[in-house]
Structures
1.
Amino acid sequence: MVALAAFFGVSALAVDSCTNLPALANEVAEINVISASWTSSNDLVLSDSSTGAALPNQYAFCRVKGNIEYSGNKSLGFELWLPEQDSYNERYLVVGNGGLAGTIDTSAMMLNLNRGYAVTAGHSGHDVALNVIIKIQAKYSQGDGYLGQSILNFTTNAVLEECDGIDGVVDDSSMASSTNVTCLTQPQINAIEAIYAGPTDSRNGDIIYPGCTLGSEKEWLMQETSLYLNYTTPILQNLVLNNLSFDINQFDFGADVDAVDAIASPLIDGISTDLSAFRKRGGKMIVAQGWADPYGALWSIMHLEQLQNATANEDVSDFFNLFMIPGMVNFADTGRLAR
Ligand SMILES: *[C@@H]1O[C@H](CO)[C@@H](O)[C@H](O)[C@H]1NC(C)=O
Ligand SMILES: *[C@@H]1O[C@H](CO)[C@@H](O)[C@H](O)[C@H]1NC(C)=O
Ligand SMILES: *[C@@H]1O[C@H](CO)[C@@H](O)[C@H](O)[C@H]1NC(C)=O
Ligand SMILES: *[C@@H]1O[C@H](CO)[C@@H](O)[C@H](O)[C@H]1NC(C)=O
Ligand SMILES: *[C@@H]1O[C@H](CO)[C@@H](O)[C@H](O)[C@H]1NC(C)=O
Ligand SMILES: *[C@@H]1O[C@H](CO)[C@@H](O)[C@H](O)[C@H]1NC(C)=O
């Protein structure tokens, strides 16, 4: 995806160069540009995916649509939005997508186009393996171990009360979450500790995915409810195990994890540690990860380690940098803070 910028020499455009772009781009064999259309300001009105508010393009831009073929007959769909010269901030940004991937997040593209970025997004790239952690929660969420929002709020407040000052900055305590809970039961403590610990391979105890971070608790509820029901279960039933009666409580943290990795991972994961072609071309990647992200803040650190391992422990900071952002939750784009 990042390669697109290099191919198009990311720069702001005007109407003529936009119209000429497909001919130019198709000189590069891998890239198939389907269309490039000039879009005047306010001509495209989307709706903001978090607020629902109307989201028009403040600046005119060249909207490029196309795909890149890979591994034979597979292809990656993409869009590249190039703002008009006067509005361009001279920066290029790749936005991701969530959940089942397979979509281009045009709403996130628009937010960033309106900040002056040249912005790209593709269909691919989301990490499904992380959702096995939901099983841990499902397991402990039954009966006494259920963690409702008041319990989760209480836990985050307690963690911050204990640890907040360690980084040298004491946050405004009036920002604490509201809660009517005053203590946790032992089953609730067991459930919370299992979620911090993360799931391990039942065959050898290896970490499958790192657990959730201290301070992310109040963001966990979706994993116990809508994500576990509407996301993990259908992926397992329809895609991975091809068994519509599969009961998630029967999930095997050995063989079933292998099946997820073998079947779902090649379709939706964007986790390769071989970035050599990107690096060789002079590519630079800046990754931002919120510490309070409930979907595995530590995974970004683990991935950086995997990348270092894959390059024989070379210093990768000349082309790959990870920034861990205190208090930030899952939606980096909106910069929503846990507190
Ligand atoms: C793509 O290639 C795979 C492997 O050769 C084959 O099984 C599949 O049917 C092909 N799909 C299409 C749509 O051609
Ligand atoms: C949890 O805290 C948030 C504020 O951070 C508040 O909006 C929400 O109502 C609280 N939920 C419960 C159930 O106490
Ligand atoms: C806290 O309030 C919620 C509703 O917001 C309620 O379901 C729960 O039982 C209450 N818990 C306690 C300990 O009072
Ligand atoms: C998604 O999960 C929620 C429970 O959180 C449920 O009410 C809803 O019906 C589910 N939607 C689908 C499409 O299964
Ligand atoms: C489908 O899943 C159910 C429940 O987990 C299990 O009892 C059944 O044996 C599975 N069916 C097949 C064909 O594997
Ligand atoms: C990196 O390599 C070291 C040494 O082989 C190993 O202990 C560690 O688990 C590896 N880290 C990751 C994240 O793969």
2.
Amino acid sequence: MTFFPHHLPLFLSFRLVAVALEEEIIVSKLGDNATLSCIYQGRKLPLKNLRVYWQIADDPEECSVVHALISGQDNESEQCIQFKNRTQLFWDRLESGNFSLLLLNVSQSDERTYKCVVLQKTEYNKVIHQAEVVLSLAASYSQPILSGPIRNSDSTGEEVTFSCRSGNGYPEPNVYWINKTDNSRLPPSELEITPHADGTYSVFSTLKVKATSNMQIECSIENKILQENLSANYTHLKQSDGSGTESHKNLEKNGRGAQAAGIVSIVILMGLLAVLTCWLWRRRSAKLVSYTGNE
Ligand SMILES: *[C@@H]1O[C@H](CO)[C@@H](O)[C@H](O)[C@H]1NC(C)=O
Ligand SMILES: *[C@@H]1O[C@H](CO)[C@@H](O)[C@H](O)[C@H]1NC(C)=O
Ligand SMILES: *[C@@H]1O[C@H](CO)[C@@H](O)[C@H](O)[C@H]1NC(C)=O
Ligand SMILES: *[C@@H]1O[C@H](CO)[C@@H](O)[C@H](O)[C@H]1NC(C)=O
Ligand SMILES: *[C@@H]1O[C@H](CO)[C@@H](O)[C@H](O)[C@H]1NC(C)=O
Ligand SMILES: *[C@@H]1O[C@H](CO)[C@@H](O)[C@H](O)[C@H]1NC(C)=O
Ligand SMILES: *[C@@H]1O[C@H](CO)[C@@H](O)[C@H](O)[C@H]1NC(C)=O
Ligand SMILES: *[C@@H]1O[C@H](CO)[C@@H](O)[C@H](O)[C@H]1NC(C)=O
């Protein structure tokens, strides 16, 4: 099971304060195993006098038993089909009141609020502990790749296209295009979110704007669950100062061109020298010949 060490504690404590003390948020990755926590800290009771039920809290109609422990034994008779062979209690922890549930191979349909109910069996059943766990699935998006237009010195006023792509994330992202000059949002001209077989999404978005001499554009991919924004920048400053991504690329290209031109002219020059040398040599020999002939 993968937690997200950077984000989880913050998110958790935030939700714990904002909601109820007994509710916990677990963030798990698709296909991983999730541990839903249920800790009873009261006085120790023999397992055979307890019943522990894991249920779906937000929709008890759909599935009333995710996992049941009755008289110290797993009881599968009422377990919902979608959880068959996918749940385990931690047997070495039960005696100490740790009734956490291991849920194997989580998928989108497991994104529910779960409830753990611990009952003490006397003449009647008494609830001695309850806990709720919200299971959220998430995966970080990859660092977005932003491509900007290759611009010549003066394309001001022309329409230019930017594109931004990212992938391997969950759930569906929000995409923001931002004009860094005044921090305003720009509406995307195209937004494509593609689901993949492994449950993750990839995203592709384009932005069409009228070019200005100084352009600073940012593409930002937001993962709401992880409270994470990943961004990529495009900076194009006025050509004259030589900074800016594209001008730099152009400079590089021009540099290579100049080098090639230099090599070509050297070759031509050497050729010319050779021809000249030949010509001078033959003129001299011709003179010698005519001289001899005249003698
Ligand atoms: C989940 O748990 C099962 C059984 O304990 C184990 O075989 C599997 O490798 C685990 N999967 C992951 C992604 O940790
Ligand atoms: C499961 O529980 C039911 C009633 O709650 C009981 O009839 C059955 O014997 C139990 N099964 C096992 C394997 O304990
Ligand atoms: C659970 O596992 C048992 C034996 O390992 C198997 O017979 C049964 O078909 C499985 N049930 C589901 C719903 O996968
Ligand atoms: C309960 O058991 C689980 C599984 O072994 C463990 O990860 C967790 O830390 C335990 N919690 C407490 C409070 O002991
Ligand atoms: C995990 O669940 C998915 C469906 O949600 C299934 O396609 C896959 O085979 C399962 N993997 C394992 C290791 O059971
Ligand atoms: C970005 O904002 C600046 C300042 O408001 C504005 O001059 C420029 O046209 C904007 N660029 C785009 C591409 O909208
Ligand atoms: C991500 O960026 C957008 C646009 O700037 C902003 O509205 C949103 O609040 C940011 N989200 C987070 C989690 O920082
Ligand atoms: C883009 O610029 C913003 C602020 O201008 C900065 O916080 C962010 O780290 C930059 N991102 C990249 C990938 O350079």
